[in-house]
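Follow-up to my earlier ticket, as requested here are the two runs.
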Amino acid sequence: MSEDGAVTSAPQRPDGPTPVPRLIATDLDGTLLRDDKSVSPRTLAALAAAEEAGIEVFFVTGRPARWMDVVADHVHGHGLAICANGAAVVDLHAGREFVQVRALPRTTALTVVDALRAAAPGTSFAVERTTGINYEPAYPPFFQDPGATVATVEKLLHEEFEDSAAPVLKLLAHHAELSPDAFLTLARSAAGTHAAITRSSPTALLEISGLGVSKASTLALCCSERGISPAEVVAFGDMPNDIEMLSWAGTSYAMGNAHPDVIAAASGRTVANNEDGVAVVIERILAERAAHA
């Protein structure tokens, strides 16, 4: 039984045996990580066993590269992670070097700002660049980034701003009064034709990327480079920013703690992150492979 009392004795999965994957793609917060942001020994063992069996593991997260310490030592082989909801591919073996950047154009970001200010007065913004985050005075401060510049978003996005040469990975928008899902629906209605808008936070915090940029589209590019088809991918996630990835992958699992829309998008469901739901599925995949060897 999970912490919220729901019975989660075994993962629900698609009909038939789980296909033998060539790649596992997993979200971090609320998925691979426990609520205390740790990776359990069981999960570490499952990831290592998957890699030893020849299955690549990709961490696919909304986190920026500088927040990857929690899993940096557990990226094997290729060393790559997909960060910022697909806006960056980062080599964690090379000091978080950016291998690929899918930037949000500054003019597009300003268009989205104008649209959201009109549709949801009281919205505050932050700008996530490859060099770090800067935010407006009303934006909730990031304790992880005490050195951030605080200014209006228009100034932060101005072409003469001191950090303007660094690509914008995503724009973040926060609202203190709207519910998270209501804010997402409103923002997509107001600015969804200009940019990709999603969320992964339990608060009304939106993450805005370049049009067409998502975990799914960047994962698809990485898989294409390796000759891996969607049918050979197993994906895990828990929040709306995972939906496209779970829909794209041939086999996908929503965590037991997942958002209802994520559960609807996934082809299966595992137990919660605090119960090592990713490890449960990986162990079963490897056991089925061994049984048929």
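Run two:
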Amino acid sequence: MIDVINLQKSFGSNKVLNGIDIKIEKGDIMCVIGPSGSGKSTFLRCLNCMEDPTGGQIIFNGVDIADFKVDINIHRRRMGMVFQHFNLFNNKTVIQNIMLAPVTVGLQDLKKAKRTNVMIKLTNLFRSSRMKKDLVPITTNKAEIKATAKENAMALLNRIGLADKADVYPSTLSGGQKQRVAIVRALAMNPDVILFDEPTSALDPEMVGEVLDLMKQLAKEGMTMIIVTHEMGFAREVANRVLFIDGGQILESAPPAEFFGNPKNPRLKEFLSKVL
């Protein structure tokens, strides 16, 4: 699904990523660990070009999304993102937060289809009957787009037990509730992969479990996930592959049993001795 080839990222003279090569297959649960400042979050943000790579390629579903000629917003629709600090819109209710992206994208696509049909009608005036082009089929409207998005949003809120919070504002939610809403907001776009940037690090310890439980459910359902985390127990239990990044490079990549039970890289051994 994602093929990262010689990924590099620099901020001025500071080289944060120095030649990352990794393949992410459909259904992978990949946990990324490493010390602070090692490049983990930058790696994740480069995957959906929130940070523009300095060099290398990111092939996502057959397209190099690191190419500046590519419309990255089209491909971001298939790549969800969950942030450390939730990034919910505080001036919108919970359900409005979840509906925002599906409605925006749906209306954009509807507008584009209508604009295309106007052009087809104009050009058809100058074509023979045999050369006329068919109009783009439009099977929805603005009201239906909003109604479908609301129905899906409520189904997602029911799934996480927060249907009663649909019309409240994020400021009234606990940290764990905010992060669960942020996760289902990402799910609302039916993504191929979800990127998690330390999703539990801003939570109180008692709220971590409810977020990790939701992520475990997604893993069981086959959602492809790339997770930057400090939760070693979660990585050991859920991941099918764990990466260790330090100094902007992948120093070790292995299944969790081998990664934690028989680490080979000396720097990884040192790191694990301090965190386990």
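The only thing I checked on run two: The chain is about 40% helix and 20% strand. Let me know what else you need.
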